[in-house]
């Protein structure tokens, strides 16, 4: 079993691992989306990890403080996670200035040796402040709104050696590369066989409760595929478009002819309902 911890993100993930369900780690770009996500967690009595991109911290500096306030006042377990932090100095600024529970130290755009060296140094600095650390082993291909695209860098599947190396770098959460991508797969989701479940199972067995597994690249996932990922060991489920596309569609359809306050209310309602649906799918409803 994972060790006891006071860190909110790890408490949420350790409970999910013990209960064999997944927890949404949901991206928010604004206060309306943040509000809808939290309302869903309260309504479903579900844990939730709120995720912000580093670009959002710069675009909307007060959003992290609003999220942190919600984490402290909610009646269900919430935590605040910064996803895909790719700049060393910005990471140091984040962990010094902001009330975050966990950070993804994403050095995957460096070569393997430098990735590990930087990750280990930053993991210690985060841990000294009680902040949990996620890292990406291998390299997940693609990009999405809010994070840098990997460009010409080749996707690298996570190997057994990668797992040992990142555990030795003292990360708490590992995001493996198993054929998943950042960005869109297409309307039908990943192609049959695109995700290497044998690799995911082997990684989960190798980890043996020492860290938790984060699943990146869930755009366009059907429910059955998400459930299969959970069954094979994925606990922290990063979601962006998977939830937010209903919000985007609502705005595209209604923005031109709907008063602003009504538009905001309608968008939050539809996003809350979609988040609740995925909490049911992932098995976290009623677990708070």
UniProtKB/TrEMBL annotation:
InterPro entries noted in UniProt: Aldolase_TIM, Class_II_FBP_aldolase, FBA_II
Q: What are the binding positions for Zn(2+) 1 in this chain?
A: 84, 182, 216
Describe the reaction catalysed, as an equation: beta-D-fructose 1,6-bisphosphate = D-glyceraldehyde 3-phosphate + dihydroxyacetone phosphate
A single MF term (Gene Ontology): fructose-bisphosphate aldolase activity
Give the highest taxon in the source lineage.
Eukaryota
Q: Which UniProt keywords apply?
A: Glycolysis, Lyase, Metal-binding, Zinc
Co-factor requirement: Zn(2+)
The pathway is: Carbohydrate degradation; glycolysis; D-glyceraldehyde 3-phosphate and glycerone phosphate from D-glucose: step 4/4
Q: Where is the active site?
A: 83
Q: What is this protein called?
A: Fructose-bisphosphate aldolase
| Organism, as annotated | Lentithecium fluviatile CBS 122367
């Amino acid at each position: 079993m994972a060790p006891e911890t006071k860190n909110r993100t790890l408490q949420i993930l350790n409970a999910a691992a013990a209960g064999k369900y997944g927890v949404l780690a949901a991206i928010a770009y604004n206060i309306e989306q943040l509000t809808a996500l939290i309302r869903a967690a309260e309504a479903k009595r579900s844990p939730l990890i709120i995720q912000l991109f580093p670009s959002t911290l710069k675009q909307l500096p007060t959003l992290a403080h609003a999220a942190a306030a919600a984490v402290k006042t909610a009646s269900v377990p919430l935590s605040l996670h910064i996803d895909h932090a790719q700049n060393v100095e910005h990471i140091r600024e984040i962990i010094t200035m902001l009330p975050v529970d966990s950070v993804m130290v994403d050095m995957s755009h460096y070569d393997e040796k430098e990735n590990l060296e930087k990750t280990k140094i930053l993991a210690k600095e985060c841990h000294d402040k009680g902040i949990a650390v996620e890292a990406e082993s291998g390299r997940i291909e693609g990009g999405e709104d809010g994070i840098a695209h990997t460009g010409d860098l080749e996707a690298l599947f996570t190997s057994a050696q990668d797992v040992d190396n990142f555990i030795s770098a003292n990360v708490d959460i590992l995001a493996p590369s198993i054929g998943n991508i950042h960005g869109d797969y297409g309307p039908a989701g990943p192609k049959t066989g695109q995700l290497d479940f044998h690799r995911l199972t082997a990684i989960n067995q190798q980890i043996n409760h020492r860290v938790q597994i984060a699943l990146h690249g869930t755009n366009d996932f059907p429910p059955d595929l998400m459930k299969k990922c959970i069954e094979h060991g994925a606990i922290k489920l990063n979601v962006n478009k998977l939830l937010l596309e209903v919000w985007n569609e609502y705005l595209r359809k209604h923005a031109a002819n709907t008063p602003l306050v009504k538009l905001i209310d309608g968008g939050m309602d539809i996003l809350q309902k979609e988040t609740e649906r995925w909490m049911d799918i992932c098995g976290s409803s009623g677990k708070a």
